[in-house]
Design a protein that fits this description.
253 residues; D-Maltodextrin-Binding Protein, domain 2; two-stranded antiparallel sheet
């Protein structure tokens, strides 16, 4: 992971520090005054990084500490599967960490019940320009900003150039190449059978999960049905996907 992708986390620490100082300093305290303050402060930071990512984070924080020697950061690694419920529990008890690395889908849930603090006062237009508008939009709820994006990603298909001279350009070509390369217990194509990886296929068939303007749910319309049927056929009809990919049960769950 590039060091630059950690910059938003450092920004979050600084914004949180400013916000905390402003709240404790009274209404007359300005953000400019807070920026010049060098009083020692400790920021608690819950994260869901794996071991390798945590090592990188600690390295980044060492550089951060050189620039801001009066700020100490207490890290706590929380398993992703437990993070949301644990955060809700401590937040309701008034013991929430200062910074929390959260899934984008949790923003509305946490902000709507008062478990987050708005960063509107600190997210200037200049700072906003550092982020893709689509990524920043996920931190918004009820017209306010509740966090900063740390990473964004997209799904892509990889192919083995030693086995495939040129990447398939259509889904029909994918099936054709897959049949040619699959035999016995060898399968040409692997795909994780969960909803996150399903979205590109919905788009490929001309569908959407939710209509952006009206918020109408479209996952049950024909394009999405056709996309799911295509994936099921890859395993059961064309037999180019291993049996371990269980589309039916994964999607039911």
């Amino acid at each position: 992971m590039k060091i630059s992708s950690w910059r938003p986390l450092i920004l979050a620490l600084i914004l949180l520090l400013l916000a905390g100082c402003l709240r404790s300093g009274g209404a007359s305290t300005s953000s400019e005054t807070v920026r010049r303050s060098t009083d020692p402060v400790t920021v608690s930071f819950w994260h869901t990084f794996n071991e390798e990512e945590t090592l990188t984070l600690k390295s980044v924080l060492e550089d951060f500490r050189k620039e801001y020697p009066y700020i100490s950061v207490q890290l706590q690694q929380v398993p992703f599967s437990d993070a949301l419920n644990k955060y809700k529990t401590v937040a309701q008890a008034g013991n929430a960490p200062d910074v929390f690395r959260a899934e984008i889908a949790w923003t509305t849930d946490l902000a709507s019940v008062g478990n987050l603090m708005s960063l509107d006062a600190f997210m200037t237009d200049e700072l906003k320009r550092d982020f893709l508008p689509s990524s920043l939009a996920y931190t918004e709820y009820d017209g306010r900003i509740w966090g900063v994006p740390q990473v964004t990603d997209c799904l892509a298909m990889f192919y083995n150039k030693k086995m495939v001279a040129e990447a398939p350009k259509t889904l029909d070509e994918l099936v054709s190449v897959g049949k040619r390369l699959s035999s016995g217990d060898k399968y040409a194509f692997f795909y994780r059978g969960d909803p996150y990886w399903f979205t590109p296929f919905i788009w490929a068939f001309g569908g959407e999960m939710i209509e952006a303007d009206t918020l109408d749910v479209k996952i049950n319309q024909q394009p999405a049905v056709d996309a799911l049927q295509f994936l099921i056929d890859l395993r059961h009809k064309h037999k180019i996907v291993p049996p371990s990919v269980d589309f039916a049960n994964d999607y039911e769950n």
